């Protein structure tokens, strides 16, 4: 549809055209918009028609180009989103694997700690038992030593008693020999 047919030539349509140009203004350079507004304001229909139609085609071409760029951008964004999703899934799987490995290591550490505790407790009990046995043996040896000292003291006392008795017997024997010698001499 041509621009002239669409807007006709009335001033009311000029305001409508100006409103549409203002809608398109982000797509047009500021100088071109100012120029178009000036033309619309002064009402140059021949210049306005051909120029606006050409500008309108330029704007449509720019819009088509922007649409393509937007579509390309959206497509690129979708691809990046897919890549990010895949990367997140990959990271999530790696994290699960690391978590499982961490849990396995914790279980292994727990088992190792339990074994160490068991061995330590077992060795500690054995050491305590051995210590008690050594203590009992030491006490038995101490008791035996005490008993031997008592026996030694007792034997010394007996020996002293026997030595005294022997001395007395020797004395009595000498007296007896003397007495016998006196008897024999009489």
From TrEMBL:
It comes from Arachis hypogaea. GO terms for biological process: nucleus organization. InterPro entries: CRWN (IPR040418). It is found in: Nucleus lamina. One of its GO terms (cellular component) is nuclear lamina. Keywords: Coiled coil, Nucleus. Residues 88-182 form a coiled coil. Its main location: nucleus. Belongs to the CRWN family. This is Uncharacterized protein.
